[in-house]
């Protein structure tokens, strides 16, 4: 096929013709959506030859492959990403211009693929981009949710959740491959037979659900001759083509089936909800493992070398059923004995832990697990039995240890333990997090299997989070240090040599101003709040969670407001500051929702006070998502990373902000520690308890927040204002927030860190007034951010865990 994107003329002509062919209307009458969809179609078709070549190269080169199993892929939009990585943006832009169409306008039509809810899902998306851009054979395996993470509306200061119908107008990037569908079995019983003296187990299911794959191409950066297009395979649940189960009506069955790929993290407060979650997990795991096994057998004809040619990566505990599922295939379907099957399985699986929060460590009640997945349960039990024998050997004198470390205990299956026992590699996502895993949370496991534990500090794709989202900075860097950093972000270090160049400083200042202006415009347009681009843009965007301490930020703003109202000298010295929040709260998370209401109530009060509103503004942006983040990251002066030390495994927003020249105000938590290591105290604002201090407090039963309430007048004042009608007439509205940090012990040390946070904020506010110095700090942050490209992270996974090599292409 001729190259549609060879030049603007061919592109323009093909584009017009295709719009008319697809929709049967004159080009002039086509809608923006039709034009967007046609452009997407042309790009997808253009991708397909490289997609085919990639798959051929994998097979012909007998390459080892990675399958990255994840419940979440927060991809955002793909048009911009794909045409940038393919290098065809200039042609498209020029061609469209002649038709009087702005490419930007078409790009905006694409719905975000929001198949995830936060850091873990966005990390998976950044990883896919890096895997393809490094030319590695790697695929994503996940669920094709009909509704993505909910759309957030703010009504009267409260969060309201609206379903995210991202598929409503069709998704141009996916290709349905019904011929590669898989039937996934549930319920029923296990038949045991003796065949040739050997016990053979067969799961006789009560129902099947059909898993239909939809493939999305993952386009790597084509510079350096790379042609890799990897696959993100998302499974959709449909009724089986086998017989329907006998014990229910067809309607009932079909509804149950569709439910599996309907929502991301359906409510699991009920028994039924828990079953649905577990069904989702087994569904995408079973389908994905079969995909890998089938591919492998086609190339090699045997599974003896499966571990040499495949890695099944377990992204957090959700896909941990990979372990018993692979065992089941090897034993029940392929006739391996237990030991051989275990040798293969435990050399194939690798697990990443993303959090130490207890509530995220999944446990499934046996009473639900066993009936739903009878054969998988049997195998899990046997894995546990053999592993417990090992434990008994090691801890002969400590039976309680055996019970603690077992995979099944208290009538629950502990998914993290299953993943640890079944994997050859277990990694944390930042050095501090890995240290906490090996020394505290998973200490005993680390003592048993020290060679398995390792760290892989997270990263972000600089293609989306710098090249695409910050064109002004990219142009400046290209001019000053060349484009080498596009493929090797460590070259950003060269930019620091320009730190004293007044022209460069000027350019950084104007870049920041332009990005702040752009964000301010959207906020004004959508929410009617006017922000001054000359004020400090102080931004906290991330999921709403108690440990992330949006509350600390909010309480500081209340303190600032009080102080500005009363202290004229302070007021005279204060540089105007705009506090911007963006966050979704889980729909059942009461406390988090209250904090949203609190921030909005503070905004209401502060923004409408003519006495201070030239100095202080607060805004909570509605529906923070990947696309919004692309506008927000480059617009920040201050990056709020203020989690209770030890709680944030890594954070990745911190890296996006840094790469775009914001200074971190943060605790020594997650990857902040590594940012601080790179830029020092002079170029960041670090405050608060350390992880060790926090853990010491926990071990000694916490601390008494009332001491601070009584001794610190600022704290008392702010807390009283939560419950005395200062913010809203309803004095009960924020009572539970008040209680959380007082009567209930202040689990996240909000009051404890308040004073040092205030001081860090003061320091930042004053530092900003020295514009030149601030810009120099900003340049240092950009220059030293090279480590945080996910290309670096993925290179480490490839070299140290996966042992995969880049593909070789014929031409
Ligand atoms: C767990 C659960 C438990 C059941 C309810 C729904 C749900 C959803 C997600 C999770 C796992 C969350 C883990 C997570 O997102 N961790 C984040 O991972 C980022 C990437 O490694 C890291 O930067 C963040 O610090 C970490 O919080």
Written account of the structure:
It is a single chain. Strands 1, 4, 7, 8, 11, 12, 13, 14, 18 and 19 form a ten-stranded mixed beta sheet that branches. The protein has a six-stranded parallel beta sheet with strand order 22-21-20-23-24-25, sandwiched between helices. A three-stranded antiparallel beta sheet has the order 15-17-16. Helix 6 crosses helix 33 (790-802) and helix 10 (322-333) runs antiparallel to helix 11. It has 811 residues and is an alpha/beta fold. It contains 33 helices and 25 strands. Helix content is 48%, strand content 16%. The radius of gyration is 27 Å and the shape is globular. Its cofactor is pyridoxal 5'-phosphate. This is Alpha-1,4 glucan phosphorylase. Belongs to the glycogen phosphorylase family.
What are the key terms here?
811 residues, six-stranded parallel sheet, transferase, carbohydrate metabolism, Glyco_trans_35, binds ligand 26V, glycosyltransferase, ten-stranded mixed sheet, 25 strands, 48% helix, alpha/beta, EC 2.4.1.1
Please mark out the parts with pLDDT under 50 across 5 or more consecutive residues, or reply none: none
Helical/strand content category: alpha/beta
Summed over residues and divided by their number, the pLDDT gives a mean of: 97
What compounds are bound to the protein? ligand 26V
How many distinct beta strands?
25
Net shape: globular
Helix content: 40-55%
| Percent in strands | 15-25%
Number of helices: 33
Taking Cα atoms only, what radius of gyration do you get, to the nearest Å? 27 Å
Distance between the termini: 17 Å
Q: How is the main sheet built?
A: 10 strands, mixed
Organism: Turicibacter sanguinis PC909
Keywords: Carbohydrate metabolism, Glycosyltransferase, Pyridoxal phosphate, Transferase
GO molecular function: 1,4-alpha-oligoglucan phosphorylase activity
Protein name: Alpha-1,4 glucan phosphorylase
């Amino acid at each position: 096929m001729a190259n549609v994107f060879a030049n603007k003329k061919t592109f323009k002509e093909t584009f017009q013709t295709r719009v008319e062919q697809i929709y049967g209307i004159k080009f002039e009458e086509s809608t923006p959506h039709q034009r967007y969809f046609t452009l997407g179609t042309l790009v997808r078709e253009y991708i397909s030859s490289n997609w085919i070549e990639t798959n051929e190269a994998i097979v012909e080169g007998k390459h080892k492959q990675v399958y990255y199993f994840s419940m979440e892929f927060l991809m955002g939009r793909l048009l911009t990403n794909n045409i940038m990585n393919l290098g065809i943006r200039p042609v498209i832009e020029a061609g469209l211009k002649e038709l009087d169409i702005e490419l930007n306008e078409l790009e905006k039509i694409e719905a975000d693929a929001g198949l995830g809810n936060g850091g873990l899902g966005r990390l998976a998306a950044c990883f896919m981009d890096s895997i393809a851009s490094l030319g590695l054979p790697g695929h994503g395996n996940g669920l094709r949710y009909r509704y993505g993470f909910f759309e957030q509306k703010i009504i009267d200061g409260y969060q309201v959740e609206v379903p995210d119908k991202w598929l409503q107008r069709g998704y141009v990037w996916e290709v349905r491959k019904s011929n590669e569908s898989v039937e996934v079995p549930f319920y029923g019983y296990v038949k045991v037979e003796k065949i040739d003296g050997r016990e053979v187990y067969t799961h006789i299911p009560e129902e099947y659900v059909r898993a239909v794959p939809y493939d999305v191409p993952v386009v790597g950066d084509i510079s350096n001759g790379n042609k890799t297009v990897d696959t993100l395979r998302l499974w959709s649940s449909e009724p089986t083509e086998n017989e329907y189960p006998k014990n229910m009506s067809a309607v009932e069955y079909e509804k149950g089936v569709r439910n599996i790929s309907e929502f991301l993290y359906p409510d699991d407060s009920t028994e039924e909800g828990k079953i649905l979650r577990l069904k989702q997990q087994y569904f995408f795991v079973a389908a994905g493992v079969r995909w890998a096994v089938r591919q492998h057998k086609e190339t090699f004809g045997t599974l003896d070398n499966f571990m040499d040619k495949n890695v099944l990566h377990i992204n957090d505990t959700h896909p941990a059923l990979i372990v018993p599922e692979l065992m089941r295939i090897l034993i029940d379907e392929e006739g391996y004995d237990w030991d051989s099957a275990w040798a293969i399985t435990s050399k194939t699986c690798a697990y990443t832990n993303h959090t130490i929060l207890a509530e995220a460590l999944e446990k499934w009640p046996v009473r639900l697990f066993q009936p739903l997945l009878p054969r998988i349960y049997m195998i899990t039990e046997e894995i546990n039995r053999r592993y417990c024998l090992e434990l008994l050997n090691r801890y002969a004198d400590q039976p309680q240890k055996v019970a603690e470390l077992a995979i099944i205990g208290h009538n629950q299956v502990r998914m993290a333990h299953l993943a640890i026992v079944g994997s050859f590699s277990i990694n944390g996502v930042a050095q501090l997090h890995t240290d906490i895993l090996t020394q505290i949370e998973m200490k005993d496991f680390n003592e048993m299997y020290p060679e398995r534990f390792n760290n892989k500090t997270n990263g972000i794709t600089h293609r989306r989070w710098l090249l695409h989202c910050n064109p002004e900075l990219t142009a400046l860097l290209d001019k000053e240090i060349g484009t080498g950093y596009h493929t090797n972000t460590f070259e950003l270090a060269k930019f620091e040599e320009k730190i004293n160049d007044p022209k460069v400083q000027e350019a950084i200042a104007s870049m920041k101003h332009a990005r702040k202006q752009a964000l301010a415009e959207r906020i004004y347009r959508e929410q009617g709040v006017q922000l001054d681009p000359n004020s400090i843009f102080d931004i906290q965007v991330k999921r709403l969670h108690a440990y992330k301490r949006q509350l600390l930020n909010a309480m500081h703003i209340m303190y600032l407001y009080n102080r500005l109202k009363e202290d004229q000298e302070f007021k005279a010295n204060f540089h105007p500051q705009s506090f911007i929040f963006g966050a979704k709260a889980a729909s059942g998370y009461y406390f988090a929702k209250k904090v949203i209401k609190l921030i909005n109530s503070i905004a209401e009060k502060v923004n409408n006070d003519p006495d201070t509103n030239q100095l202080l503004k607060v805004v909570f942006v509605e529906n923070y998502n990947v696309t919004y983040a692309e506008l927000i990251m480059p617009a920040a002066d201050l990056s709020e990373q203020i989690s209770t030390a030890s709680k944030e495994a890594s954070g990745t927003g911190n890296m996006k902000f840094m790469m775009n020249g914001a200074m971190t105000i943060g605790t020594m938590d997650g990857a902040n520690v590594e940012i601080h290591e790179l830029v020092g105290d002079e170029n960041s604002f670090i405050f608060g308890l350390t992880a060790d201090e926090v853990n010491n407090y926990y071990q000694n039963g916490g601390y008494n927040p009332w001491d601070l309430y009584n001794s610190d007048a600022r704290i008392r004042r702010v807390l009283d204002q939560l419950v005395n009608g200062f913010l809203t007439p309803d004095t009960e509205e924020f009572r539970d927030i008040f209680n959380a940090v007082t009567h209930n012990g202040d689990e996240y040390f909000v009051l404890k860190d308040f004073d040092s946070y205030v001081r860090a904020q003061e320091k930042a506010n004053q530092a900003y007034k020295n514009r030149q110095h601030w810009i120099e700090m900003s340049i240092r942050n950009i220059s030293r951010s090279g480590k945080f490209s996910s290309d670096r992270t993925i290179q480490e996974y490839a070299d140290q865990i996966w042992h995969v090599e880049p593909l070789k292409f014929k031409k």
